[in-house]
Amino acid sequence: MTDVKERIESIKEYFLGMDVKDNLVSIAVKFPKKWVILEGLDEKYGVVIDECKNTSGSPYAKEQGSFYFAAALSDGFDVAFDAIDENIAVMKAAEERVELLEAKTKELKEIFNDENNSLENLKTLEFSFRTELQQPKRVQRKEQNNNNSEGKEGDN
Fold this sequence. Notes:
Blueprint: H1 4-10, E1 15-21, E2 24-30, H2 41-45, E3 48-51, E4 66-72, H3 77-113, H4 119-123, H5 142-155
Antiparallel strand pairs: 1-2, 2-4, 3-4
């Protein structure tokens, strides 16, 4: 069990407050506007997540993008902090991916806009990675599936 002060310090950028009430512990946080709450996060950690504006009597109701992460008192604050930590980590990683995509797109635009790079040279452009990446799954076209099934029928 980590010290509560340390947990608050680790999310201080988003932390609004915490409370113990009706056998529940709750932590209020405010996330950036573009962030979302991960689907299934509540079930994974056994917490209740609610927008502060949907909670009557919330002192944070005016804070757009503010949420309560609530857990049973018997589970303590760690469960709510763990859910918050995961949401923050995933949202920060998503932001970094978008920034990286924008930077790499800009680099590619510069390469393609450089008149010194011939079309033939640009056609030879390939991507390589230092580590193996997960390749996107390719969806087979209906045409290929139809051709395959026609070939089988013709064999009969």
